[in-house]
Prior knowledge:
Layout: H1 16-25, H2 30-40, H3 44-54, H4 59-65
Helix pairs in contact: 2-3
Amino acid sequence: MTQPGVHPDRIAINDPAAFAEWTRKLDTTEDQLRDAIAKVGDKAADIEMHLKGTRSTTNAERVHDLGGS
């Protein structure tokens, strides 16, 4: 059960722990996530679709291609 006033499908930019968790879940950077929120709002599904449409590979794939872990 979620707490009153908490919307699990929305990304709270003012909650550092939740924001960091969303960057991990969406495999994106904080700057990319802030930009996506500014463009499409704070609904997680809208942000995910926006991010998928703006990049052809994930950040993890780019790191791997550059020789990272």
